[in-house]
Amino acid sequence: MENFDWTRFTIKIAIKAGIEEIYNAWTIPTEIEKWFLSDASYQDENGVNIPKDQNILKGDLYKWIWHLYDELEEGVITIADGYDSLQFTFAGTCLVDIQLREEYEYTIVELTQKDIPTDDESKRNIRLGCHGGWSFYLVNLKSVYEGGLDLRNKDNRFKPMLNN
């Protein structure tokens, strides 16, 4: 573990869907709720609510809630280029970068979470915990957009599980 980078990680997945569809999966509230969140609400810089069917923009504030969890994640969209790049604050001071690119008939989704603090709690909960969480949710993104099956557990009788 001597050379292990606790401050960042990158994971990738290939999804057989168009780049615009996958960009919208990240940036339209009703779409991100299909594979990632139970509720995604956004406000612009002036505090005006963003409609659920509208793409978010740079500077928008978010409030995210997951199925079966009470935690509320709040942050800001720092990059939203309308095509292949998105960045947002996450887990305190961290940044998450989403880069999309087309390869053959696939869209490659590359997620990097960076600026992870190096205290023991952050190593465990953010570096390791978020890596596991993002890995599942990227697989779920692929499942939803390639076949329509949402793999998330939404039944509170089964908590915690790999898929929630």
From TrEMBL:
Pfam families: AHSA1. It comes from the Bacteria. InterPro entries: ASHA1/2-like_C (IPR013538), START-like_dom_sf (IPR023393). Residues 17-144 form the Activator of Hsp90 ATPase homologue 1/2-like C-terminal domain. Belongs to the AHA1 family. This is Uncharacterized conserved protein YndB, AHSA1/START domain.
